[in-house]
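For homework, think about our next protein:
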Amino acid sequence: MKFNLWFFLAGIFGLSALIFDAFGSHALSSWLALSPEDMSLVKQSWQTATKYQLVHALLLVFFAGMTFEKKQWNLTWGKIFIVLGVILFCGGIYVKILTGMTCFGQIAPYGGGCLMLAWVCLIVTAFRTGNR
């Protein structure tokens, strides 16, 4: 049986995004004791993290499914940037909200940068592969 790490991680990211979204919709407010205004901001951040995680799980599926005759550095780095981006951006937001430790919110921009670099890798792929 063959194992594909990238499809596995995409599945984990997609499944956990749905679980985290359900938790954010149904249980987060009872988990945290915040004012309604603060809870509204927290829920917005939580929803952003779950949305980005789900979108990038799909992008990882796309990258994992792309194959070419010659190995493409941009595909490899694109997958790495997605994984790092989801962990740093989404994970940083989740941990910050659940623990109240603001230092985790400070790593989110690095994760956002990784996610942007993954999209740049996709753009590079368009130029490197042409009309095949």
